[in-house]
Design a protein that fits this description.
234 residues; mainly beta; Immunoglobulin-like; 3 domains; globular
């Protein structure tokens, strides 16, 4: 139950609270014969996943004007089913208690967000996917596009302790398959542990791409960076 509702009724020039009840949503305050009901919030924009650890993922999204809070939903497949895992008033949520990825077995989680207010819930956002890191090796951090032109994208990331090879992948979709036994998209490079950048010369002007970096240790344990969205200029 998210709200305590006081039904206010106008009696002469005074307002008296005639009843009090718990409901799942505040449905409005009745004044005389009219009701004031807020509009249902807009659907939240596409969320992003950051800060992967072996047992947690952080979900971030943009503010929806007029919302009273947000519901976070999680699934093990992009198509669902989705289960609510949290209700928050801010625009960030760290989901803990997840399973770590392991050799040949990435743990992929999918998240959607809805906004709610006194009138009800918005629709669900588009799904975003994230992958927990291996308990054996951390996920790459500092993944960013250091140079973006209409025909090339240069990527860089931080060295991971124990990392032997890094492979950067490009995709036209922001959602990973589950399981990603073979990562979809175009592998850009396979590099030794001293190399922490890659340049993609196969992009087109005015196009959005999604990148991810995989690090593998000497025993074959992998971890994936968060997905990076890059849009080339026209």
């Amino acid at each position: 139950m998210r709200r305590v509702v006081f039904a206010a009724m106008l009696v002469g020039a005074a307002v008296s609270f005639s009843s009090c009840q718990f409901v799942d949503r505040l449905v409005g305050i009745s004044i005389g014969k009219s009701s004031v009901v807020a509009p249902i919030p807009a659907t939240p924009s596409f969320p992003t996943i950051s800060n992967p650890t072996s047992t947690s993922l952080t979900v971030v999204w943009s503010v929806v004007n007029g919302s009273g809070g947000y519901s976070v939903y999680r699934a093990s497949a992009a198509s669902g089913p989705y289960q609510e895992v949290a209700e928050v008033t801010g625009t960030i949520y760290t989901d803990t208690g997840l399973l770590p990825s392991a050799y040949g077995a990435y743990q992929v989680y999918y998240y959607r967000i809805s906004a709610w207010d006194s009138s009800g819930d918005s629709g669900l956002s588009q799904p975003a996917s994230g992958v927990t890191s291996s308990a054996k090796i951390s996920a790459p951090t500092g993944f960013a596009a250091t140079s973006v032109t209409s025909t090339s994208v240069t990527l860089s990331w931080n060295t991971v302790a124990g990392g032997v090879t890094y492979t950067a992948y490009r995709s036209s979709s922001p959602v990973l398959p589950n399981p990603p036994t073979t990562l979809t998209g175009i592998p850009l490079s396979s590099l030794d542990s001293s190399s922490v950048q890659a340049t993609d010369n196969g992009v087109s002007p005015g196009t959005t791409y999604y990148y991810i970096v995989q690090v593998v240790d000497s025993s074959g344990n992998p971890s994936l960076s968060p997905i990076l969205k890059v849009t080339t200029p026209p």
